[in-house]
Amino acid sequence: MNTGLRDRVAIVAGSSQGLGRATAFALAAEGAHLALCARNREALEQVAGEIRERFGVRVHHAPLDVHDTAALEAFVENTGRIFDRIDICVTNAGGPPAKPFLATTDQEWDDAFVLNLRSAAAFARAVIPYMQRRQWGRIIMISSITVRQPQPQLVLSNAVRAGVMGLVRSLATEFGRDGILVNNVAPGYTATDRLIELAAHGAAASGRTEQQVEQGWIEQIPLGRLGRPEELADAIVWLGSERASFVTGQTILVDGGMYKGL
Ligand SMILES: NC(=O)c1ccc[n+]([C@@H]2O[C@H](COP(=O)([O-])OP(=O)(O)OC[C@H]3O[C@@H](n4cnc5c(N)ncnc54)[C@H](OP(=O)(O)O)[C@@H]3O)[C@@H](O)[C@H]2O)c1
Fold it and tell me: What separation in Å is there between the alpha carbon of 34 and the centre of ligand 1?
């Protein structure tokens, strides 16, 4: 399959580890140049170095906390200056804390909103003018299976990420005439550090072991296993490619069949 990604320029947020890191590798494997960000400079440097060495693409990277919209906009502007184009933007960051509803605070609600919804809107606002210039663009937002199937103890994610679907649908409609396609990928339980964190929380909350918590998730997944980060990344490569040219405003679940609705 020719993805048409060679020499495209892609921003991948939250790319120092986990799903973002796997996405960066997958896009680079198709020949895309990258702009990577996350808070941890050393981890980013390592990812950028490995990608350059393996794939020979250009990689810009800079530490960024997506809570800081001015810094986010400066990162996008630098990317545009360095590469003279931005074709693809993958929005992503960490997940909000797992906890029962009555234990959540206003501060945590505000943080979840900024981390998982406002930052995605800020990236979109910053990259769309670059995409409009070339009348071509792909914005792919990483959210969660919680957008379709709310998960226990994840009320912050369940509530806030639903807004990502509204954002995706709105942008797909408003910018379709500019050739900009906007989609949401919703991972199910995928083996990353975030999942280790959730298993530890689930174990502490239920008195089970982390292995038992993980087994509980696996039992709900028809494919009988956790996802691999590369599997989510492959869906993003497709959505970012020329091969997904008539797909916009959608939520694509990559969850091994865990969501059972129609
Ligand atoms: N793994 C799963 O099973 C799963 C399932 C459903 C949804 N998700 C969601 O998908 C997203 C990615 O998941 P993951 O498993 O890859 O998580 P992860 O392993 O925790 O990685 C999160 C990435 O985002 C970066 N990040 C976190 N906070 C940030 C901030 N304030 N500003 C900038 N970058 C930030 C982290 O790097 P730094 O720490 O260096 O900033 C890291 O690169 C999360 O929102 C997660 O909740 C994951």
Answer: 18
C-alpha radius of gyration, the chain, whole number: 18
Residue 21 CA: nearest ligand 1 atom is 43
Q: Where in the chain is the domain with CATH 3.40.50.720?
A: 9-188+228-253
* Residues 236 and 26: beta-carbon distance below 8 Å: yes
Ligand 1: residue of 11, 12, 15, 17 to mutate (most ligand atoms within 8 A of CB) is: 17
Residue carrying structure tokens 């800081």: 68
Structure tokens given for 232: 């989510």
80 lines ligand 1 (CB under 6 A): no
Q: Any idea which architecture 9-188+228-253 has in CATH?
A: 3-Layer(aba) Sandwich (3.40)
Tens digits of residue pLDDT in 40-63: 999 999 999 999 999 999 999 999
Instruction: Give the nearest ligand 1 atom to 142 CA.
Output: 10
